[in-house]
Specification:
The protein is an alpha/beta fold and 378 residues long. The protein has two domains: 3-73 and 102-176 and 267-341, FAD/NAD(P)-binding domain (3-Layer(bba) Sandwich), CATH 3.50.50; 179-265, D-Amino Acid Oxidase, Chain A, domain 2 (2-Layer Sandwich), CATH 3.30.9.40. The chain is built from twelve helices and 23 strands. It has helices at 15-24, 54-61, 64-69, 105-119, 164-168, 236-243, 247-250, 273-276, 300-316, 320-347, 356-362, 367-370; strands spanning 3-5, 8-11, 30-33, 49-50, 73-74, 78-81, 88-90, 101-102, 122-124, 130-135, 138-143, 149-152, 154-157, 172-175, 179-186, 197-202, 205-211, 217-224, 262-265, 269-271, 283-285, 291-292, 373-374. A seven-stranded mixed sheet has the order 7-6-16-17-18-15-19, covered by helices on one side. Strand 10 and strand 11 form a beta hairpin. Helix 1 (15-24) runs parallel beside helix 4, helix 1 (15-24) runs parallel beside helix 9 (300-316) and helix 2 (54-61) packs across helix 9 (300-316). It is globular, with a radius of gyration of 21 Å. It starts with a strand and ends with a strand. Residues 367-378 have low confidence and may be disordered. Bound molecules: flavin-adenine dinucleotide (FAD). Flavin-adenine dinucleotide binds at residues 11-17, 33-36, 46-50, 127, 130, 158-160, 162, 164, 181, 264, 266, 287-288, 295, 298-302, 304. Flavin-adenine dinucleotide binds next to helix 1, strand 4 and helix 9. This is Flavin-dependent dehydrogenase. One of its GO terms (molecular function) is monooxygenase activity.
């Protein structure tokens, strides 16, 4: 069995893992592992809105030039029917960091990986099933498919919502609600020149629709996993018919289209950060693996980049235990602020306040979801 030693092993080559590899690789030997090549599923990736403040983080990673060359679309205004029945406009141009972007998400993820490799990281993009263990004061990753073992003093879980290493190590993660995102990519329409993000509260969930750089239009509806309407809405005619009841959406949606409706878990979930502090030194959790944002926040990619930056600072610090504690304190604060703001966001559509989807969220998580979900140790 081959045995390789590294300064850091990053599991998961999404935006968080790739950004961290970009930051560490110039000075350290970094192994970046992912279970699957990009686009293995053949599906376009949902999650395309990036705020202007991400510019600084991409610059820190050395990934900004490649990012600019990719031709992502500048983010237009947001128009929402949320806290009132009158449309409210928000123009991101007034953001001091700039308007931000609507990403070609597949290109963005591929470019982040390419930047990590350019910075010196070794990428294994099809590592298959992994096992993480602690052995002799080092972290060890065994790849079942290749039979290879890798060891490093630093191990990072950047596996997104699957939080694969977190689960293997038996750390707790709390699922804060049961949100599902139903979404479809509608074909590009030459007559559709709308640049806005359209957001709309509904009685049992909320919508957004936006055109992505390919010209396709994303239509997404977020509702509870136990909603009786979920099954019916998995067919596009039903989804379109419900969306078109809102004039804000009907203005940009076709009468009919024949595309697949995809369903994706989109719930908020967060690590028990206090438990992370008790794990052996050198273990970090970044991006969605540590804190998965509700899509209404549009903060997931920014958090992926920001948490990678925070972890890079800690890993590069000579006083390792204090630096990891500082990282954990920062993530705990981000998590607390996020939960408070999320509750306020869901409290705003008071016309729906007593309906189950909304009441569940403004009242806060129910008792069951307050419990941390403990995964079995592998
Ligand atoms: C419906 C929806 C809409 C969203 N909209 C937005 C938006 O508009 N703006 C925004 O900023 N964010 C949005 N997000 C969130 C955003 O997509 C995520 O926050 C972001 O992708 C997190 O990056 P990450 O690197 O942490 O995880 P991911 O992007 O999920 O990357 C994780 C990587 O780990 C790999 N991996 C997983 N398991 C393993 C394993 N066992 N072994 C090895 N590798 C593994 C995966 O293949 C993947 O490459 C949305 C999310 C959803 C669900």
């Amino acid at each position: 069995m081959a045995d390789s030693r590294w300064d850091a092993i990053v599991v998961g080559a999404g935006p968080a893992g790739a950004a961290l590899a970009c930051r560490l690789s110039p000075q350290r030997r970094v192994l970046l592992l992912d279970r699957a090549p990009l686009q293995a599923s053949g599906l376009p990736r949902i999650g395309e809105s990036l705020p202007g403040a991400a510019r600084l983080l991409l610059q820190r990673c050395g990934a900004f030039e490649r990012f600019l060359a990719a031709g992502h679309a500048q983010r237009g205004a947001t128009v929402s029917l949320w806290d009132s029945n009158e449309p409210r406009w928000f123009d991101h141009l007034r953001d001091p960091h700039g308007a931000g972007w609507h990403l070609d998400r597949t290109r963005f993820d591929a470019d982040m990986r390419a930047s990590a490799v350019d910075a010196g990281a070794v990428l294994i993009g099809d590592c298959g099933v992994l096992r993480a263990t602690r052995d002799g004061g080092h972290w060890q990753i065994d790849c079942d498919a290749s039979g290879e073992s890798h060891r490093a003093p630093v191990l990072v879980d950047a596996t997104g919502r699957t939080a694969a290493v977190v689960r293997q190590l038996g750390l707790a993660r709390r699922i804060e609600d049961e949100l599902i995102c139903l979404h479809a990519y509608l074909p590009a329409d030459m007559a559709d020149t709308d640049q806005c993000t359209r957001i709309c509260a509904d009685s049992n969930g909320w919508w957004y629709s936006v055109r992505v750089p390919s010209g396709q239009r994303v239509l997404a509806f977020h509702l509870d996993a136990d909603d009786a309407e979920l099954r019916r809405l998995k067919t596009l005619p039903c989804l379109l018919e419900k969306a078109r009841r809102h004039a804000l959406l009907a203005a940009v949606l076709p009468l009919r289209a024949d595309e697949t409706v995809h369903a994706r878990p989109a719930a908020s979930a967060g690590l028990d950060w206090a438990a992370l502090a008790l794990t052996a030194p050198g273990f970090f959790v970044i991006g969605d693996a540590g804190l998965s944002f509700d899509p209404v926040a549009s903060q997931g990619i920014f958090h992926a980049l920001a948490s990678a930056e925070c972890a890079a600072t800690a890993i590069q610090n000579a006083d390792a235990p204090a630096a990891r504690n500082a990282f954990i304190a920062e993530m705990t604060t981000v998590h607390a602020h996020y939960r408070q703001r999320l509750r306020g966001t869901y409290a705003a559509p008071i016309r729906y306040a007593q309906l189950p989807f909304w009441a569940r969220r403004w009242r806060g998580p129910d008792l069951r979801s307050h419990e941390y979900e403990h995964a079995a140790k592998a």
